[in-house]
Design the sequence.
């Protein structure tokens, strides 16, 4: 197929204003923490839908957009997800994770219990789409992890920018999500993201981010 081009234009912004909006964005993003204690307080699902649209604007290899976002609000489905996740996580914490992994998790104070999967008003389950099924063949997608990862980053940034809190959760293995949510075989669960307001008594581990010198260099 021949490429078809359309004109691209982006308004220029004064550099001082660019810096100001970047700094404001940083101030908001610095407030993001992984929250494991959620309030049950509900909010308009439109906020989630808007964040998903922002995620869907992410770049992807050959524009394949290999992602699907399932919004879970049903208490019954959330409960089913919690029970299945806790079953896997219990096995992981007690028998599957090597001691070095448990040592790395120790400062976070996490264990197999995942109450937040029921208390958060919404869960967003991100699926990566490995291939496209047409009537006649399967078309493989490339760099699916990278593309889904960027879209998930957009999603987390959008939700937190809007003032909501999130956890990036990866129960392992998480194929139970494919079954519970009845997704086709080309969609693989990638990330489980509870979204809501932090509980009033929520705490987070006292962690530090690396310094600019550690993460950035110019050559
Ligand atoms: C790919 C990925 C998977 C993660 N999986 C889990 C998880 O399964 N459970 C959990 O409690 N936190 C999980 N986290 C959250 C990290 O523990 C957290 O981002 C890290 O400790 C830094 O804390 P912060 O997000 O508050 O800055 C995950 C984060 C990422 C990026």
Sequence:
């Amino acid at each position: 197929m021949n490429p078809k081009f359309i004109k691209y234009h982006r308004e220029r912004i004064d550099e001082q204003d660019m810096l100001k909006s970047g700094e404001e964005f940083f101030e908001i993003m610095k407030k993001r923490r992984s929250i494991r204690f959620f309030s049950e307080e509900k909010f308009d699902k439109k906020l989630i839908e808007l964040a998903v649209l922002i995620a869907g604007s992410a770049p992807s290899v050959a524009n394949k957009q290999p992602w699907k976002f399932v919004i879970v609000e049903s208490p019954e489905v959330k409960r089913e997800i919690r029970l299945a996740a806790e079953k896997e996580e219990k096995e992981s914490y007690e028998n599957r994770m090597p001691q070095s992994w448990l040592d790395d998790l120790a400062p976070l104070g996490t264990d197999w219990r995942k109450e937040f999967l029921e208390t958060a008003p919404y869960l967003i389950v991100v699926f990566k789409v490995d291939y496209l099924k047409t009537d006649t063949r399967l078309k493989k997608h490339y760099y699916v992890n990278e593309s889904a990862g960027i879209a998930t980053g957009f999603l987390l940034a959008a939700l937190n920018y809007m003032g909501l809190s999130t956890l990036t959760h990866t129960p392992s293995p998480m194929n139970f999500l494919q079954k519970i949510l009845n997704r086709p075989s080309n969609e693989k669960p990638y990330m489980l993201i509870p979204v809501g307001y932090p509980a009033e008594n929520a705490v987070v581990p006292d962690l530090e981010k690396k310094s600019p010198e550690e993460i950035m260099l110019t050559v």
